[in-house]
Structure formats: C-alpha cells, structure tokens
Amino acid sequence: MEKKKNQDNLILIVCDCLRVDYAYNPDLMPFLNNFKDQNNFSKKSFSNATNTHLAMPTMMTGVHPFSKTNSSGINNKIIGTYLPKIFKINGYSTHGITANIVTSSSFGYNVDWDSWEDFWSQKRKQSGQKYIRKITDKIPQTIKNSLLSPLRKVVRRALPEQITDVKNKVRADKVFQKLKSLPIKQNGNFIFLHLMEPHSPYGTVEDVRKFGISNIKALTGKIYDNPSALSFKDILKIRNLYRNECRYLDKILKEMITYLLEILDVKSTRIIITADHGEALGETEYFMHQSDMVSNRNHIQIPFITKNIPLESDRTYWTEDIYNFLIPSDKYKVIAEPYCVGYKKVSLSLPGIRSEYEPCIVTDLKSIWKIRGKNELPYPIDKASFIDGLKL
Ligand SMILES: [Zn+2]
After folding, report:
1. Model pLDDT, residue 3
2. Residue 35: which CATH number?
3. What angle do CA 324, 276, 351 make, to 5 degrees?
4. What spacing in Å lies between the alpha carbon of 375 and ligand 1's midpoint?
C-alpha cells in the first residue's frame, strides 16, 4: 500500500545572512560541509529578494516579491500558500522557532503552528518595562494611572529592534533548547528554524569577552552608521567576527541535526538548510544586506543543502525553487522567477504598522537595472492587489 503523504518529515533551517563561500568552507563549518558532501548541495542558488523583509515571505509562500503585497511579513494576501498552513491542511504537525524579529509574531509569522516560539513578545515586554520604569520612576502615581498607562503599550511597540544589539541577539543554543522541549513525534512534522548567528552585529559570546563589548559596539556602530569610516583593519576584524559566528553556528547546527535525526524517522525526513540572503562584507561599496543593492554577489547568493531531496548540480536555484521543494503537494508548485529584486522603504515604520516597500533595482545575474516601481518588474504582478496601502 502506498505510504500516506503526511507521514514524512520536512525540516527547514534558515541561517540568516549566511553567505555561500563561508558556508561551504570546511575549515569554518566542518559539520555543514560533511553534511553537504554526504547529501546534496547547490553551488548556484540565489535569493529572490535582497533582505529578510521580502525574501522570507517568498520562501514561506512562494509568492514573488511585490506580486501580491508591498508589505513585509505574512498578511492575508499571501497567507493562502503559507507553508505551515498548507502543511496543516495536509495533515502535518507544524513547529516553528525563530530568532529573527522579522519572522516573528510582529510580522504575522505566528499563525498555523502547533507550536511556535519567537522570543520576541517576551523580550519586548521585558525591555519595555525597563524603559518605562526609567522614565516613570519620578512621576506621581495618579498621573501614571491616568496618562501613562495607555502610553505603555505604544512605547513597548516602538522600541528599537533587539537584533541591532549584540548582547540581545537570540542565540541558536536558545533555539535548540526550545526545540528539545517540543513534543515532536517520529513522523508527520514540518519544522521551521530561523537562526541569526551570521546576522550583524557580529560578535560571539567569546569574542565579546575577548575584545570587550565597547570595542565591538564601536565597530558595529561604524558598519551601521558610517561604513566609509571603516579602515582596512576594521574590515578584517569584521570578517573575522563574522567567521566566528559561522563557526559557532556550525557547532549548534551539528547538535540540532544530530538531535532531529535521533528523534525522527531518518529515511522519511527531508532537510533543507539555506539562507534568506547572503551578506556583503565590504567587497563592493556596501556592507550587510542593503535592501536597495544587488551588486555584491556574496549578498544575493545563498547556500542550499538538502537531505533526501536530490538537486541538479548544474542548475541555478532561486528562493522560489526552494519553496517548490518544501511544499507537501505538487498542486502548490510555483513558477520560479530568475530575478533578485531590491527595494526601498516608502512608508515609515510606526508601532503596529508594517512598512511598505517599492522595488527599485533588479538583477538576473547577468546584468543589473534600475526600475521605477512594480509595473516595471520583469514578471507578472497581481493587478487586483494594486491598492496595497489599505491595511488588512
Ligand atoms: Zn535576513
């Protein structure tokens, strides 16, 4: 008798900002390279979008950037093909853990999971209380009650993103701890893990101890605010910190995969390890993963490693191809568009409202060209969702 489709397992591990040359370096990431050589991998995989805001919705829904929505995150326009939703419809248990705020409940990713953790609500509450206490300590109680209580919620939501603080980065070992606490059966699971090690600010716990938090913060400040002030020595330091993040990530990946292969039925477990995008480390005019830049190949190329999913070694894969490998049934298959789209923010980030973006640059890997809005995208867009400013 044919085996029921929902008895297999699918694991998706996204390593944010993990560039392919570092990922495929066995000296830096010995476990990942051993895993890659024993299974399948692609040398030519690329992200359909320049940063997490639109790359992750594409990976998780198969919808091309800007074809149905201009906003970051998961919303009603694209939720119909959101992976945990279609896995649930197809009889799977769904488990998601993310260390990235951009794939947290704040961006709508928390729906359709049997178990979900994004660490964000808890963090936001804790830091919110700290900030509020600082401000309100000297104010009389009556004023606090009438005036400040309603403001608390707003202040909490308006707090800066925690990922820009090296000490507050949610670490992969925390994700692993959470993973171990989940009631995962041997079969029939979709598991999504989003790890942040290679994301800036770079600096493992060990490096912070070694170089001092103030030195690492000063270097991070330059990357964010004034990259032209970075000396060649600074750039080498940055690359070294990034390398150490990869080394640490490799250690935890080893523990995670070993654990998962122990608790799951190995033969029917498909695994994908990839990134949402790569990272620029000053090879061209920019650092990190600027949303409106596509000129640095290290930024748009991604590692793509699979277990129990054959890959064609000469083919070029895009984020949308990865979606096609993830789906539980061929009926969800999408046409992968061979383009990486860069974009600019066109609305301010306000508490509770997600930013809107507009595409401004495209590459097909052969050339790079500027565009003046989504009408000039090289693929069809859903006309019905043209008026995207209306919030759902
Ligand atoms: Zn990202």
Report:
1. 44
2. 3.40.720.10
3. 115
4. 25
Whether residue 285 is predicted with pLDDT greater than 90 in this model: the reply is no
Take residue 309 and report the two structure tokens written for it: 């999913």
Q: Give me ligand 1 centre to Cα 149, in Å.
A: 35
Provide the number of structural domains found in the chain: 1
Tokens at 305, concatenated? 């490693």
Domain membership flag for residue 228: yes
Helix crossing, 213-225 with 232-263: angle to 10°? 100
- 174: confidence class by pLDDT, cuts 50, 70, 90: very high
Kindly give the distance from the C-alpha atom of residue 142 to the centroid of ligand 1, in angstroms, as a whole number.
Answer: 44
Q: Given phi > 0 = left and psi -120 to 50 = alpha, else beta, which region is 236?
A: alpha
Following DSSP, what letter does each residue of 352-390 receive, concatenated? TB--BEEEEEEE-SS-EEE-SSGGGSSS---GGG----S
- Ligand 1 centroid to residue 102 C-alpha, Å: 8
Extract the tokens encoding 73: 């995150």
Ligand 1 mean position, distance from CA 277 (Å): 6
Tell me if 133 is assigned to some domain.
Answer: no
pLDDT of residue 391: 40
How far apart are the CA of 141 and the centre of ligand 1, in A? 43
Q: What is the SS3 assignment for 59? A: helix
Residue 47 Cα to ligand 1 middle (Å) = 10
Any domain includes 354 = no
Taking the C-alpha atoms of residue 294 and residue 277, their distance in angstroms, rounded to an integer, is: 11
Range of the domain at 190: 5-119+170-335
DSSP 146: I
